Amino acid sequence: MTRIPTVNILGVPMHCVTMDEAVASVADFIAADSFHLVITLGVEMVMNAQRDARFLAVARKASLLTPDTIGVVWAARRKGHKVNRVAGIEMLEHLAERGAREGWRFFLLGGKPGIAEEASQALVKRYPGLVVAGTSDGYFKEDAEVILKIRAARADVLLAAMGSPRQETWTFDNGDALGVKVAIGVGGSFDVLAGRSVRAPALMRRFGLEWLYRLYREPSRVGRMLALPHFALKILLSG
Fold it and tell me: The whole model's pTM is what?
């Protein structure tokens, strides 16, 4: 992978990548003979890392951490880095498009029963030739059966939508056993792909207001949104 500038966001490293660089990096990982974890980094993750030593350790060992939300982009820009948002679901779509051309095999893990399969069907319809080698929901209690299913699928890329930090720590802990080249935490992307959830309008996304739209659609997220002002204050106080 071409050396990419890294910025420290409250102790969590983040790569200052463009979308093209992120996709190219994943392609390099797939060509390599080892496991790589990709984290789509957002404000909630950074704040969680302040109190979750295990997640922080995993984040520091990840091969690529992309700027997923406007909050981390703002924090990086304050430190003088030229960064634009690389939204996780958009990176997923770019990877699916390239994967359809290059024959990459994908496995979708996570979501409620049936959601991963619906997301898979939507991706295959949108990107003809895409190989989805398997799917599984995220409501499993025993790891062994799911690990064997993923390994048997001979997937190159594991898309894990199990919520953070579980999707990152679980894939990292089981990386060698899974047999995949790349694991990427994609949060609620399967719900969007399956049509169960709607992204903010393009204009709101352009101005970094996707968080406000999500709060409007899901008022129950208000507690989680308290991480935003706390994060902003910590960044301002850190200089």
Answer: 0.92
At 78, is the pLDDT very low, low, confident or very high (cuts 50, 70, 90)? very high
pLDDT above 90 covers a percentage of the chain that reads: 82
Q: Name residue 210's amino acid.
A: E
Distance between CA atoms of 100 and 53, rounded to whole angstroms?
Answer: 38
Q: What distances in angstroms separate CA 12 from CA 44, 66, 71, 74, 96, one per listed residue?
A: 12, 11, 14, 15, 28
What count of Cα atoms within 13 Å lies in the side-chain half-sphere of residue 70? 10
CB 197 within 8 A of CB 191: yes
Q: Which domains does the chain have, with CATH numbers?
A: 6-193 (3.40.50), 202-238 (no CATH)
CA-based nearest residue to 36, from 25, 46, 48: 25
